[in-house]
From TrEMBL:
Organism: Tuber borchii
Necessary cofactors: Mg(2+); Zn(2+)
Gene Ontology biological-process annotations: NAD+ catabolic process; NADP+ catabolic process
Family under the similarity heading: Belongs to the Nudix hydrolase family. NudC subfamily.
EC nos: 3.6.1.22
Name the UniProt record assigns to this protein: NAD(+) diphosphatase
């Protein structure tokens, strides 16, 4: 029988939760090898010391530098020194006081510490603070797109240096990269999501002024002053108009993650699964239904609403199966298994025009497709038969939900 795509979960074997619910499914784009140490992102002493000892993942137009089709490529500090310097030499308050909107700053994001990284035989970086000692290789992501005039030349130099003399290195020009090894895919998901968020939020949502990245790339603020409007160097920094984003608790300064439900819906007898096809997909490609959660809506309610809106099928009991980060741009896919009401299995596509077709498909047909006819909508598995049901690849949570159902996830345990 086809085994689920999963990371190693040996340490979970003795747990009572594993005995009751089974081993945890770690979906693609999750299970990062990095310790994010998120509480150190505002610790300038840590960041200042870590930066020269770090390795850097470069992204150009959100496309990562890769060493091969399955692995990312990293560069050392010397490669990026001229571009980034050390922005953590100043404390946050001083950094914001010196803000000048005319000066372009490359987006640099701290990803975490790889505690198991021993490459190049270098001495492990260690930092003692916040009650503990942290050791390993610090990792950053750096945007080298260089869209602004002042950064374009320097970013170009970094790009050239990064690939020079390294056979096979390239910025991967793929829209949806599911070929990376799982640990690298998880790192890319984090890096891509954060850089994309920084790119999309360069202006304050409250007052429209330019924002600046702090907390090692994980927060953007609307600075209270701007030297760009200072008449004389001797004058105090120009004060911007008051902005609500600088006061109290708010959510406009932090990266957002959009909660999304994706669900395998079984019929009341348990021998069929509801599959749908979007208009832009090939005629033989189907998947599970999915949709965004709305404000003040539980995951279970979102599953029921989205299923009914897209297919007309009414769902009763919903069980969470697993989750998957999806960095296109920043979704969290919350996978569920749902059961249709006996009198609610009729398919109606009139509510929401997203689907061109929806069908109840027998488990045996789904199982056969999972075993040899999977891929993304624009790619096929080797040996796939034209005209037969095609399903998402094992790296997609939709595949894992379907696999769970055909393996009996929804059936009563003896």
């Amino acid at each position: 029988m086809t085994q689920p795509y999963t990371a190693t979960t040996q340490s979970h074997n003795p747990s009572m939760l594993s005995r009751k619910f089974g081993q945890e499914i770690v979906n693609y784009f999750s299970g990062s090898p990095l310790n994010r140490v998120s509480f150190l992102r505002s610790n300038t002493a840590f960041l200042r010391a870590a930066l020269p000892r770090s390795k850097f993942l470069l992204l150009r137009d959100l496309e990562p530098l890769a060493a091969s089709k399955t692995t990312l490529a990293w560069v050392g500090y010397e490669t990026v020194r001229a571009l980034v310097g050390n922005p953590f030499n100043a404390e946050e308050e001083e950094f914001l006081r010196e803000y000048d909107s005319r000066v372009e700053i490359p987006t640099l994001v701290f990803l975490g510490v790889n505690e198991g990284d021993e490459d190049r035989g270098e001495e492990r970086f260690e930092f003692e603070g916040e009650g503990e000692k942290y050791a390993g290789r610090p990792c950053f992501a750096l945007d080298v797109t260089g869209e602004g005039r002042s950064l374009k030349e320097e970013c170009g130099k970094v790009q050239e240096e990064a690939v020079k003399g390294a056979e096979g290195r390239e910025f991967r020009k793929v829209r949806l990269d599911l070929g990376l090894a799982p640990p690298d895919a998880a790192i890319l998901a984090q890096a891509r999501s954060l850089l994309d968020w920084n790119n999309r939020n360069q202006f304050c949502a409250a007052c429209g002024a330019r924002t600046v990245s702090i907390n090692a790339g994980t927060k953007r603020v609307c600075p209270p002053t701007d030297k760009a409007f200072q008449k004389n160097l001797q004058d105090p920094p120009f004060e911007r108009p008051p902005c609500i984003s600088r006061k109290g608790i708010h959510n406009i300064a932090f990266p957002r993650t959009d909660p999304t439900v994706i669900m395998a819906i079984v019929n009341s007898i348990g021998d069929k699964i509801l599959l749908g096809r979007q208009r832009r997909w090939p005629k033989d490609f189907y998947s599970t239904l999915a949709g965004f959660c709305e404000p003040a809506e539980s995951v279970e309610d979102a599953v029921r609403r989205e299923t009914w809106e897209e297919s007309g099928v009414r769902v009763g009991r919903v069980v969470i199966h697993s989750t998957q980060p999806w960095p296109y741009p920043a979704n969290l896919m919350m996978g569920a298994i749902g059961e249709a009401f006996p009198d609610g299995e009729g398919i109606v596509l009139k509510h929401d025009p997203e689907l061109e077709d929806a069908q109840w498909v027998e488990l045996g047909q789904v199982r056969s497709a999972l075993e040899g006819n999977t891929g993304t909508p624009d790619s096929k598995a080797e040996g796939a038969v034209e005209g037969q049901l095609r399903l998402p690849p094992s790296t997609a949570i939709a595949h894992q939900l379907l696999l769970a159902v055909v393996n009996g996830f929804h059936l009563a345990k003896p």
